[in-house]
Amino acid sequence: MDVTPKEEDCLEVIYRGDKRVKDIAKKLNIKAPTLVELLERMERKGLIVHKKYGPVELTEKGREIAEKVLRRHGILTNFFI
């Protein structure tokens, strides 16, 4: 499955505990309407579950990708330090 870098970043933020659209948008430095479009795309891919005005939850597939992204980011951080 093709997951864009922005989707990976979004999955990582959700995995780390931010569940509200407002909080996720702030962390990603994007406007809420842009994030809502991104979330809709991610929901169609089966990565998240999001009800209007509700929290964003990862699906099992979304959780697996988020964990891989976190591992990859950790490896890169250690490499550059």
Question: What layout of secondary structure does this protein have?
Answer:
Elements: H1 5-15, H2 21-28, H3 32-44, E1 48-50, E2 56-58, H4 60-80
Helix pairs in contact: 1-4, 2-3
Walk me through the structure:
- The protein has 81 residues and is mainly alpha-helical.
- Helices cover 65% and strands 7% of the residues.
- It contains four helices and two strands.
- A two-stranded antiparallel sheet has the order 1-2.
- It is globular.
- It starts with a helix and ends with a helix.
Query: Kindly state the mean pLDDT as a whole number?
Result: 92
Strand proportion? 5-15%
Spatial arrangement of strands, main beta sheet: 1-2
Q: Enumerate how many helices there are, as a single number.
A: 4
Spans of at least 5 consecutive residues with low confidence: none
What would the principal axes of the Cα set say about the shape?
Answer: globular
N- to C-terminal distance = 31 Å
Number of strands: 2
* Structural class by sheet pairing and helices: mainly alpha
Helix content: 55-70%
| Cα gyration radius (Å) | 12 Å
- N-to-C SSE string, H for helix and E for strand: HHHEEH
Task: Report the sheet with the most strands, covering strand number, pairing sense and barrel closure.
Answer: 2 strands, antiparallel
Main features:
81 residues; mainly alpha; two-stranded antiparallel sheet; 4 helices
Can you summarize this structure?
The chain is mostly helical and 81 residues long. The chain has 4 helices and 2 strands.
